[in-house]
């Protein structure tokens, strides 16, 4: 009532003119609103809407970088960052990306993309994931939607699972990328786990994995890393992948491949998609969450793709329409620039060849840093078996360091990594590898 009366005062002032002698002057809107606010709040004890909200815990990965940046030491080392760095520790923009930028600069429109994203990008992305001659592409059985990098692709898949398979649960390897659990949990999917990494051997717990897959309810969802498992760097062999595929078919499980490192793992994009190829050859319908952050250095462009292999062309069309509907209230349309960059590179033979050379160069530098770190550790007299450093693959090395040892590295040597002992080999350079090895040897030398 008070607000209505205030409105009538303002209306009368406007109609009769507030500048004439004797006219009633309209109260200011700020005065009216502040008075109304006092009236509405009254004697309520609630002084703020968000006073009960406490601080969120730091992200276990991003928090490492925050601590590193706050450290004033000139000799600090960050081996926690999940982004490629050159041998000077600097971010890299690939030459193929620079050339693609020049080609699209000033000539492309800035309109919204469709909800499914750029059709040309999606088509090229799934060819990279499944192979140019893949039957599922020729038969038009792949639903593909441009996503906000790999994280967004996983979230779309999680929501699709919740919406159309609400009774199902999803299994993750132990350990896995920490955000996987957050994504499916927030999509209200029941989260379970299966054995994957063996701390004793610092390799794959293949027997435990197969046992857990076998004991999972038929028709369960599993998230598998297509290559360069994060955080362990431990991948099944070709023969092991074949056994896994056979058991999954027997159990009628559905696999979501998270492929964030295609090309970046081995330096060969075809080799890095071998797990997906094996599953397709066995007749599986799979999903794939792709990211072009790591392998093209397009971290900030947030460019990825979710693709789902279906039974028929019509089924694929239906599934794609539903994923688009999930995306609509979430972010409506994906970004344009990154899609143009990837599509330009993958569609041009010269640029694609250059990209393949550059991504191999990045993979080779990571392999070299693995060899040097192991060489320095063994050369300094460490009695620990460091063979796993060179056996593992991809950006990350699951070192075997304990949380207490990681804390000691940070406190005494200003070396930053996640507390599970995951070392980002991208942060290792020819300039700091000896220092890193010395520090690791010092905090582990009591071990036998």
TrEMBL record:
One GO location term (cellular component): mitochondrion
Catalytic activity: L-aspartate + 2-oxoglutarate = oxaloacetate + L-glutamate
UniProt keyword annotation of Ribonucleoprotein present: no
PROSITE patterns in the record: AA_TRANSFER_CLASS_1 (PS00105)
GO MF term set: L-aspartate:2-oxoglutarate aminotransferase activity; pyridoxal phosphate binding
Record keywords: Aminotransferase, Pyridoxal phosphate, Transferase
Regions crossing the membrane: none
Domain of life: Eukaryota
Signal peptide extent: none
Enzyme Commission number(s) from the entry: 2.6.1.1
Domain Aminotransferase class I/classII large: 76-440
Cofactor(s) the protein needs: pyridoxal 5'-phosphate
Gene Ontology biological-process entries: amino acid metabolic process
CDD domains in UniProt: AAT_like
Family (UniProt): Belongs to the class-I pyridoxal-phosphate-dependent aminotransferase family.
Something else known: In eukaryotes there are cytoplasmic, mitochondrial and chloroplastic isozymes.
Summary of subunit composition and partner proteins: Homodimer.
Xref: PANTHER family: ASPARTATE AMINOTRANSFERASE, ASPARTATE AMINOTRANSFERASE, MITOCHONDRIAL
Protein name: Aspartate aminotransferase
Organism: Chara braunii (Braun's stonewort)
């Amino acid at each position: 009532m008070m607000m209505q009366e205030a409105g009538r005062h303002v209306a009368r002032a406007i109609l009769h003119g507030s500048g004439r002698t004797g006219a009633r002057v309209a109260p200011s809107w700020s005065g009216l609103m502040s008075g109304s606010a006092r009236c509405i709040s009254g004697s309520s004890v609630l002084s703020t809407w968000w006073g009960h909200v406490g601080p969120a815990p730091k992200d276990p990965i991003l928090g490492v970088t925050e601590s590193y940046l706050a450290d004033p030491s000139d000799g600090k080392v960050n081996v926690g960052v999940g982004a490629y760095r050159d041998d000077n520790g600097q971010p890299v923009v690939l030459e193929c990306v620079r050339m693609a930028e020049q080609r699209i600069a000033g000539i492309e429109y800035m309109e919204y993309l469709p909800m499914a994203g750029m059709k040309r990008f999606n088509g090229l992305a799934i060819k990279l994931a499944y192979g140019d001659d893949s039957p599922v592409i020729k038969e038009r059985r792949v639903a593909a939607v441009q996503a906000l990098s790999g994280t967004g692709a996983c979230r779309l898949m999680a929501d699709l699972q919740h919406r159309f398979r609400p009774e199902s649960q999803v299994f993750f390897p132990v350990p896995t990328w920490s955000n996987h659990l957050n994504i499916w949990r927030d999509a209200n999917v029941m989260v379970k786990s299966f054995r994957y990494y063996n701390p004793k051997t610092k390799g794959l717990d293949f027997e435990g994995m197969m046992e857990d897959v076998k004991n999972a309810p038929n028709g369960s969802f599993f998230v598998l890393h297509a290559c360069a498992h994060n955080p362990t760097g431990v991948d099944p062999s070709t023969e092991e992948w074949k056994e896994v595929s056979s058991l999954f078919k027997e159990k009628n499980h559905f696999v979501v491949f998270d492929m964030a490192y295609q090309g970046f793992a081995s330096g060969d994009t075809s080799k890095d998609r071998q797990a997906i190829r094996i599953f397709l050859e066995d007749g599986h319908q799979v999903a794939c969450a792709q990211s072009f952050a790591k392998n093209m250095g397009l971290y900030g462009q947030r460019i990825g793709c979710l693709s789902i292999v279906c039974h028929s062309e019509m089924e694929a069309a239906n599934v794609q329409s539903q994923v688009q509907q999930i995306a609509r209230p979430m972010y409506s349309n994906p970004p344009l620039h990154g899609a143009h960059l990837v599509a330009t590179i993958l569609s041009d033979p010269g640029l694609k060849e250059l990209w393949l050379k550059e991504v191999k160069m990045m993979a080779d530098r990571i392999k070299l840093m693995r060899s040097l770190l192991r060489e320095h550790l063994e050369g300094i007299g460490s009695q620990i078996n460091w063979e796993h450093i060179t056996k593992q693959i991809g950006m990350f090395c699951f070192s075997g360091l304990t949380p207490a040892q990681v804390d000691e590295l940070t406190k005494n040597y200003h070396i930053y990594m996640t507390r599970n002992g995951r070392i980002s080999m991208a942060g290792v350079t020819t300039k700091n590898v000896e220092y890193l090895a010395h520090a690791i040897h010092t905090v582990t030398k009591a071990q036998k």
